From TrEMBL:
One Pfam match: FAD_binding_3
Protein name: Geranylgeranyl reductase family protein
A single MF term (Gene Ontology): FAD binding
PANTHER family: CONDITIONED MEDIUM FACTOR RECEPTOR 1, GERANYLGERANYL DIPHOSPHATE REDUCTASE
Length: 443
């Protein structure tokens, strides 16, 4: 069978998760020709807590998504549980963010966004796995090779490729952009349970005193997120660090669930709805640079999970919007130095927007890896509503800029005095570009 002619586009987006579909939507809205390539078929499951903070809701509203439509479950705020104490806090009032969060399963959330991008004009190709980047003689990415349904091979060509291919970052790795091993990585597991007692809860619940069987407090939290359809998303996330000792996440989840009231129904026998699933959380810009030789990294592919709270969807969507804006400006210029200068604006802007905040978050993660500090936080955090309001704004990145009250000003000042990371633009991070016409994607 002859290889079909390459499909041409102005931008290829690899991966139709929240980041990839958001990028494709913004690009298509600019009138650009976009190919959105996804290895799976929709609907498909994805490991996630299914919770969206007001910062993520803002992105949905910007895209014209009706968050009052069926399928969305609104929440008022957060409920914290620690050492037998309970504290409920509504989401902070803000001029920049709505005063509500959302939950929706990734099984249909991702499909909704992908179809939204398709309706805007992006060409969606499902069941199409990227096997290699296509490189020109100078080592610049000029497309991707794929294997589609029934093993059919096809090339897609474009002057720019957006990698939204998740935590493994296969396209980035193939270009010599490796993970920075000193940056934090977490592990999350989740499972669905049928729970009439909890599925309509107006708060997202987080237990801060996550413990091993021996009682040792760990750097992380467990959650119960209501879905409104008779189910809850139950899971936990922990920071991977040698100081915390070995962790078996399934056992941790079982230990925690045994602490919840039996009336909630969070037990494997009879109420579990589907298997336990887990995934890695690439945090704090743990893959750099975010642009190299025609390849832009967004979301998990660029290690963009918030190191303060493990939130990934928000930053996938925000980086996607920025990448689309930069791509539109760059492609309006002729190929060559002028276009490259425009594309270098992307990592510079990512550094400007989140570099200091993520460096602060990495410092917080390092402190949480110290058992004494973790024990102190879980023992005292819920005792003070004012302190927890401050922590919610800081850890969820929900301040107005410029600030509108004293708490905003304090959080913004703390971020401002954090030294800017010198390596974010990434001009010297990672290996030099590959000099081949085609490179296999590992794995």
């Amino acid at each position: 069978m002859s290889r079909p002619a390459a499909e041409q586009a102005q931008v290829i987006v690899v991966g139709a998760g929240p980041g990839g579909s958001t990028a494709a939507w913004h690009l298509a809205r600019q009138g650009l020709s976009v190919a959105l390539v996804e290895k799976s078929e929709f609907p498909r499951e994805k490991v996630c807590g299914d919770g969206l903070t007001p910062r993520a809701v803002r992105q949905l509203v910007r895209m014209g998504i009706d968050t009052s439509a069926p399928g969305w479950m609104r929440n008022r705020g957060l409920r914290f549980v620690s050492r037998g104490r309970i504290l409920e806090l509504d989401w902070p009032e803000s001029s920049a963010f709505p005063a509500y969060g959302l939950t929706r399963t990734r099984e249909d959330f991702d499909q909704l966004l992908a179809r939204h991008a398709e309706a805007a004009g992006a060409r969606l190709h499902t069941r199409t796995k990227v096997t290699a980047p296509l490189l020109d003689r100078a080592g610049r990415v000029v497309g991707v090779s794929t294997t589609g349904p029934e093993g059919r091979e096809r090339d897609f060509t474009a002057p720019l490729v957006v990698a939204a291919d998740g935590v493994a970052g296969r396209l980035a790795v193939s270009m010599g952009i490796e993970r920075l091993k000193k940056r934090p990585v977490g592990t999350a597991v989740r499972r669905y349970f049928r729970s009439q007692a909890r599925h309509l809860d107006p708060y997202l619940e987080s237990w801060l005193d996550l413990r091993r069987e021996d009682g040792r407090i760990l750097p992380g939290y467990s959650w119960i997120f209501p879905l409104g359809d008779g189910r809850v998303n139950v899971g936990l996330g922990v920071l991977n660090d040698s100081r915390t000792g070995s962790m078996q996440t399934r056992r941790l989840l079982e230990t925690w669930l045994a602490r919840t009231p039996a009336a909630w129904g969070l037990r494997e026998d009879g109420n579990a709805d589907g298997p336990l699933r887990g995934a890695a959380l690439p945090m704090g810009f743990n893959r750099l640079p975010h642009y190299r030789d025609g390849l832009l990294l967004i979301g998990d592919a660029g290690g963009m999970v918030n190191p303060c709270n493990g939130e990934g969807i928000t930053y996938a969507m925000e980086s996607a919007e920025l990448a689309a804006d930069v791509a539109g400006q760059a492609l309006a210029r002729p190929a060559g130095p002028a276009r490259e200068r425009a594309l270098e604006h992307y990592p510079a802007q990512m550094a400007h927007r989140l570099g200091r905040y993520y460096r602060l978050g990495r410092g917080f993660s390092a402190l949480m890896a110290r058992p004494a500090f973790t024990s102190l936080v879980t023992q005292n955090a819920v005792r003070s509503p004012a302190a927890m309001r401050f922590m919610v704004r800081l850890l969820s990145n929900l301040t107005d800029r410029p600030g509108t009250d004293a708490m905003d000003h304090l959080v913004n000042a703390l971020i401002r005095v954090t030294p800017s990371p010198a390596d974010h633009a990434g001009r010297f991070a990672g290996a030099p570009s590959l000099r081949r016409s085609r490179s296999r994607v590992p794995g």
